[in-house]
Amino acid sequence: MRRRNGNGSQQLQDITEKFRKGEAKLIKVLEDAGYLTEREKSTFLDKIDKAVAQKRSSEVLATAHSLHNKIIRVLQNGKGEKRANEGQELEILMEVSRLIQTTNQREEGLDKLMELIRQVIPFENGTLFVLNRGSGQLVVGSVYGDHVDLIGGVAFDHGYGFSSWVAKQQKPILLNELHRTTRTVGPEIGSFLSVPLVVQQELVGVLNLSHSANQAFTDEHLRLLTLIASQAASILQRILMYEEMARLAITDELTGLYNRRHFVTRLQEEVERSKRHDHPFSLLFLDLDNFKRINDTYGHVLGDRILAELGKLLHKWARKSDLLARFGGEEFVVLLPMTDQQQAMAAAERLRTAVQEHSFPRRKRLTISVGVSCYPNDTENVEELVKMADQALYQAKKSGRNRSMACSMGAA
Is 330 a catalytic site residue? Predict the structure, then answer.
């Protein structure tokens, strides 16, 4: 049986492991604060480890929800024994725990987090930065009031601004005597708080708070924000995990293109959009000529590298509006919105030429064959449209490969 080219689910395993570490960090923070007993801590950690061992994302997330419900009950049971200020901390921790369970949307989750912090720290403006793992740069995730940062023109490892310096140092900063008259842009800042959001020594973001008055923040505010930041980091990491899992669910891991299932969903949406606006669209079906020979001669490792390289080439060639997907094996599909048959054939030829002229790994020169179908000219039935493009691809290969062919035309 032929093995399909691909890298498995290593990315999902990595995400799950980061999730486990984040849960362990949350439990440790609560234990250090005196909200969990040793026995409760051990029970929670055991449940998380068992869920991760099952290697099923649904089981891991279900266990997380159960864990957070139990944490809330533990906090509620111990609330009456705390002093007034500790009771306020408990309320925030409880709300943050609820927030962990009830949201997996970045904008919603981060905005609610800022509102919770506003209840215990009197800031006027706040910005929560999220670390982009791809670029290593901090990007704005949520803003309360006006965007706030300091020394914006200075570059550090994680981008521009004082927040990037805090990210590098991974230490909280409290500045209470700033000279507000020296700032020419942005809000007046007399007091400034900045804390890194870190999970298991891994930076996930930075939170900046400001007030126009001097001495607006206290050491107690800094201590409380640092405590909240530990959970805030877990929330942010969890939101990023949901986003990554959602991305993996619709993405082909090897090529970075969409997978077949997502393509079929988007194709149906494009049909509805085409009906509403009365414009055509086209499909390109393509696959690498003689790719089986590459796998059989050089092995699947080189085959994987070539498929990944083709994915990059397709990204470079396509328009932003085009939808690229790996349909299976060495077969790919491109959805071209607002494109008639003549335009689609021209696009197919440009792509075929680009592949022919490209140097693949080990300096391999490869070619593709392309089949084209157009909605609604060829058919208004989605399944027929896909079938016709596939049949045109078959005819292109049968006619000698390295050519483009529409289902109602001859080879180009």
Answer: yes
